[in-house]
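Could you show me some protein's one-letter sequence and the numbers that encode its backbone in two labelled lines?

___
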Amino acid sequence: MTDDGSEHRVSPRALVGAEALAALAVPARFAILNHLLSAGPRTASQCADVVGESASNCSWHLRALAKAGLVEPAPAAGDDARTRPWQATAVGFDFSGDDGPAARIARTALAGTAAQHADALFHRYLARRELLPAEWTAAPDMSDYALELTPDELRDLLGAVDALIRPYVRPIRTAAPEGSAVVHVTLRAFLDPDVLS
């Protein structure tokens, strides 16, 4: 139960396979999926405004994401494909199912795409930060840590952080208090390549 009396549904991530990894090899598709996860159901035209692609390209990417099981048509009035909204099929995705060499390479490529997307999003935020209300610009927007951990401790720490953050994920938190907005949180944890023992 939360302070506002609502209950958090902490949905598991959907385990997806190689086809989904291949679908997300295209950066525009990764951006579209992330936009749907952040903003909720959107049409191809609405996605186009955000990801810098034409509406017809976004429609093509959405069909490819649907074929991979990552998005689906959202309930809508009417059958006009041009105005049909799409939604993510889950509130998050787990790409760890296949551990073959091709899947490992694809996951590494996807991690790079995710990092580039998060960096670009953060730079767009920085470019507009001075236009935001003071209560948002006063909130901390970045932290860096150098932690000394074992692999088991890192897994436990990331699990604890996920358990803390997950109830606030936009599709899960259906009764957010007034004044809430979608906040992007990126967490990267990796061995420091400059301090290898």
Notes: The beta strands are 14-15, 71-73, 86-88, 93-94. The radius of gyration is 18 Å. Confidence is low (pLDDT under 50) at residues 1-10. Helices lie at 18-23, 27-39, 44-51, 55-67, 101-128, 134-137, 151-165.
